[in-house]
């Protein structure tokens, strides 16, 4: 490397013939035959000669080229390869463009097809939105480590164990999504954070359920004819989950069969896994009573728009000083089946919409036990209404 620096001038550059001329200190000017020109720096690192481009001329002036050369010569003096160091800096700067919030949004978008109702209910994203993004959303995902995650999750790790578990699960998915995008992230960060947080003390609590022997009295007390009461009655009669019940649409009902679309059934994501619900005589009676309230085809519309919420039905039970909640009626039904009915396990579980057996077994078993479930649900209906008859 020549010790003499700043050999060139603006006039020299304008008059230069095709070829390479040195400015000194490893900085070279290359004039091409086609009239174009560019700067490059020639250095020796660890005994190996390296050449790195510094940009085209005249976009990069003589003065700017000398400043760049000074910068990278300093890097060489520190024992680093300037080309690799420049690439490292570029990657680092690029990572700062991928904030956790942006990657989380992208991960959510890519998974909407797998989620109930395309994730419109917001439940997949909510744990992140409420408990993670307010603290880490504006941090580049590549900069987030287990300590950051631990500090973020610590306030809810034991107090809101189920929510914390969901948030950690979603965050792990976002990290894997980032890795698939080619970003440099620590895929074990969430597992390491769990180790730092320790075992959760909080024990998950089952949703309170009314004993099956008491369900008929409660069912028969729902005699006001309101949308909420009719919704609860059909929920109890069919033993379905709240979501498909609240979004029940007239187009889904054909005769005495209610077909719940796959996207509204928990655990069923493909287009062929819709769920047929046999409707008892009493269930059809409730539907007939609900039809006058229907709006846009939905049997149980909300007071102002949309459909009734979970809180609407839960609120009715709460006002009656009950600790039980609507979802618990599924447990009440299952206990009634177990204690009073002699039906195969597969029929009882399918009545709740549960997937029974392994994938191979399900591939060979094509029935959904509709006829057996029809008999079972008619008996459940008779049990609920026996004092009304």
Automatic annotation (TrEMBL):
**Which ranges carry the Tyr recombinase domain?**
205-377
According to the UniProt entry, its GO molecular function terms are: DNA binding
InterPro entries, sorted:
DNA_brk_join_enz, Integrase-like_cat_sf, Integrase_catalytic, Integrase_DNA-bd_sf, Integrase_DNA_bind_dom, Integrase_recombinase_N, Phage_int_M, Phage_Integrase
What are the record keywords, sorted? DNA integration, DNA recombination, DNA-binding
The record ties this protein, via Gene3D superfamilies, to: 1.10.150.130, Integrase, DNA-binding domain, Intergrase catalytic core
Family indicated by similarity = Belongs to the 'phage' integrase family.
Q: What is this protein called?
A: Integrase arm-type DNA-binding domain-containing protein
- Give the organism the record lists: Ruegeria spongiae
**Organism ancestry:** Bacteria, Pseudomonadati, Pseudomonadota, Alphaproteobacteria, Rhodobacterales
């Amino acid at each position: 490397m020549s010790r003499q620096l700043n050999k060139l001038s603006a006039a020299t550059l304008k008059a230069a013939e095709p070829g390479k001329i040195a400015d000194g200190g490893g900085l070279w000017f290359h004039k091409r035959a086609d009239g174009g020109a560019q700067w490059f720096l020639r250095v020796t690192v660890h005994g190996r000669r390296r050449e790195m481009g510094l940009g085209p001329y005249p976009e990069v002036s003589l003065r700017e080229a000398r400043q760049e050369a000074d910068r990278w010569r300093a890097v060489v003096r520190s024992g680093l390869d300037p080309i690799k160091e420049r690439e490292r800096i570029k990657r680092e700067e690029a990572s700062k463009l991928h904030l956790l919030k942006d990657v989380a949004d992208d991960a959510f978008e890519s998974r909407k097809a797998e989620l109930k109702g395309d994730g419109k209910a917001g439940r997949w994203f909510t744990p992140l939105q409420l408990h993670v993004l307010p603290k880490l959303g504006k941090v580049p995902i590549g900069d987030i480590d287990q300590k950051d995650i631990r500090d973020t999750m610590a306030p809810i790790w034991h107090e809101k164990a189920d929510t914390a578990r969901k948030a950690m699960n979603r965050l792990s998915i976002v990290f894997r999504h980032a890795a698939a995008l080619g970003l440099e992230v620590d895929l074990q960060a969430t597992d390491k954070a769990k180790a730092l947080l320790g075992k959760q003390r909080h024990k998950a609590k089952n949703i309170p359920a009314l004993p099956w022997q008491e369900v008929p009295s409660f069912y028969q007390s729902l005699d006001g004819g309101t949308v909420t009461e009719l919704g609860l009655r059909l929920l109890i009669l069919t033993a379905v989950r709240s979501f498909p019940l609240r979004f029940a649409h007239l187009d889904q009902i054909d005769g005495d069969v209610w077909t719940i679309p796959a996207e509204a059934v928990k655990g069923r994501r493909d287009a062929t896994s819709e769920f047929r619900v046999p409707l008892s005589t009493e269930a059809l009676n409730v539907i007939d009573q609900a039809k006058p309230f229907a709006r846009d085809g939905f049997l149980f519309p909300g007071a102002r728009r949309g459909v009734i919420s979970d809180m609407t039905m839960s609120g009715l039970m709460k006002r009656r000083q009950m600790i039980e909640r609507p979802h618990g009626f599924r447990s009440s039904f299952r206990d009634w089946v177990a204690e009073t009915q002699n039906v195969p396990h597969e029929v009882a579980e399918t009545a709740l919409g549960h997937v029974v057996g392994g994938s191979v077994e399900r591939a060979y078993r094509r029935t959904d036990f509709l006829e057996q479930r029809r008999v079972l649900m008619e008996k459940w209906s008779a049990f609920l209404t026996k004092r009304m008859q």
